[in-house]
């Protein structure tokens, strides 16, 4: 029980502090962003920062050229342990180029059944600093720093999967399809894969071998610029190509009551068109799964950020912690450094593992990221991508 003398002393100290600030305000003196407290605080404050968001090293074991613009890197954990992941997940790489750390997410393109290592497949992007660097310079023996695996674009319980992939969007799709076909006899997989030209088709031999060896699967290839004598589909994966292909699937469907899920990954325009078409055909939103890779800006915007440290109150695991956030630091970086138990995975706004509620204050959030419009409206933010504009109260739920 707190003594009367202790309560009076605490109230007197509070009154002195308030009078001090009132006097400073009247004299026009600026308040410091962080106020040093005398005596104990009712909120825990970390005394020593802890290592946080530290990627681990992966070793490049082999490099395989898939197409003129796509390369597969065979990776192994730097400490020799198996690289554990779930089909469809991705790794977040921290690549140092020209003195700058660039974060990029790449799907694991192999099946986890093929461990202990794993592969990523990187397609060259026009102007893409990391994709071009890896295509041109990756070599056996290289060390890459990575976080993860991350992501929820993984196989569920559905017994029929309709999979739509465009370009490098085939990487998580191939991993999921192969893993399911090799482990489940009750599943059917239908894959439509679109590319610009025949030379751009990634994993063609692998996909065709998978379709030949599993009677419960089908593969259709679509090319925008097909060669003479092409027998596959022609055109972009828009309504003109997708519509008839989906009609044939519906016509040939053996069990209309079977649980069906749709997996979509590829260029943004292709994915938007596919979702619109599926929705127009009555496919419920919860049956459509998407993997959208949105690379964050290489450098966070600082125009709206304070030049001095601010304090943030973070509620996690039933307790509040006062966390100092240095200029340019994310909420996740500051929270982890202060010892707050904050979940995270990809740390680049692509998986929502660090999603938390903004109870008070304002933040600047890196764009693009994986939050939906509804989540934003409901007050959710991503701690890995958010920097406070001033004092903030955060709830980790």
Summarize the main sheet.
6 strands, antiparallel
Relevant CATH superfamily of the domain at 160-291? Nucleotide-binding domain of ferredoxin-NADP reductase (FNR) module
- Distance from first to last alpha carbon: 32 Å
Helical content band: 10-25%
Q: Helical element count? A: 8
Radius of gyration: 26 Å
Kindly report the average pLDDT value.
86
Q: How would you characterize this protein structure?
A:
The chain is of the alpha/beta class and 397 residues long. Among the domains are: 56-150, Beta Barrel (Elongation Factor Tu (Ef-tu), domain 3), CATH 2.40.30; 160-291, Nucleotide-binding domain of ferredoxin-NADP reductase (FNR) module (Rossmann fold, 3-Layer(aba) Sandwich), CATH 3.40.50. Helix content is 24%, strand content 29%. It is built from 8 helices and 19 strands. It has helices at 4-26, 129-137, 170-183, 204-213, 239-252, 268-280, 331-337, 373-377; strands spanning 56-67, 70-77, 90-97, 100-107, 118-123, 143-150, 160-166, 188-195, 217-223, 233-234, 260-265, 288-291, 310-316, 319-325, 355-360, 363-365, 380-382, 386-388, 392-395. Strands 4-3-6-1-2-5 form a 6-stranded antiparallel beta sheet. A 6-stranded parallel beta sheet has the order 10-9-8-7-11-12, sandwiched between helices.
